[in-house]
Design a protein that fits this description.
Blueprint (H helix, E strand, L loop, with lengths): L2 H11 L2 H7 L2 H17 L7 E5 L5 H7 L6 E6 L2 H13 L6 E5 L11 E6 L3 H5 L2 H10 L1 E12 L7 H8 L2 E8 L6 E7 L1 H14 L4
Parallel strand pairs: 1-2, 1-4, 2-3, 4-5
Antiparallel strand pairs: 5-7, 6-7
Length: 210
């Protein structure tokens, strides 16, 4: 175990600008809202398979890992340091058995399984450089009844999510906007192809025959 690196990771999170932000009311509120929207809009069973795109500091991945004691969590980030830091921290916390950590590009990576829930929060979409491509690949990895949790901080003109979803033929089930503490955020629950196809079939069955 590289305890020297563990100490450095802790120090990086709680010193300087990072420490000021992590301990701020704005950040604590943002973390609360991210978790609140997820808890209130997503059903997660203990045996679910979850994919998180964008590890960052790894706090969200830790939270997700405890939601699926009989399932699995896959976490992917293109940044080697983020992936390695999470791996080392989870080993130190004895929380590594059901977590797979990947260092790769979530836009082009070909996942070998489908997921019940996929999450992308914070700057994951913006930092990908191609919102449509990363959302497209995420949606393609959903199980038929799966759902995508998309949370974005919108400091600038946001991506045209509606046109992206129309192109992908998916359904935006829930949407919420919040700009508390000067941080404009959008929260979405997006259902995959299978859900939209079923909804169309229901509407078709309800339509009067001619």
């Amino acid at each position: 175990m590289d305890y020297k690196r563990l100490a450095e990771i802790y120090g990086e999170c709680w010193s300087g600008e990072a420490g000021e932000w992590n301990s701020s009311l704005s950040n604590k509120y943002l973390e609360y809202m991210i978790t609140k929207f997820f808890e209130e809009n997503f059903t997660v069973k203990p045996n679910f398979d979850i994919l998180n795109i964008g590890i960052g500091a790894g706090y969200w991945d830790r939270y997700l890992s405890f939601k699926v004691p009989e399932g699995s969590l896959t976490s992917i980030d293109i940044d080697r340091e983020c992936a390695d830091n999470l791996d080392l921290c989870l080993q130190n916390e004895n929380n590594r058995e059901r977590v797979t950590i990947l260092c790769d590009d979530a836009i082009t990576y070909r996942f070998d399984k489908k997921y019940d829930v996929i999450t992308m929060i914070g700057s994951a979409v913006d930092e990908s450089g191609n919102a449509e491509a990363i959302i497209r690949n995420a949606v393609s990895c959903l199980k038929e009844d799966g759902a995508l949790y998309l949370q974005m901080i919108c400091d600038k003109e946001g991506n045209d999510l509606k046109s992206i979803m129309d192109d992908l033929d998916v359904e935006k089930e829930t949407e919420f906007s919040d700009d508390s503490y000067g941080i404009p955020c959008r929260y979405y629950k997006i259902k995959g192809h299978g859900n939209k196809k079923r909804n169309r079939q229901v509407l078709s069955d309800l339509s009067p025959t001619r």
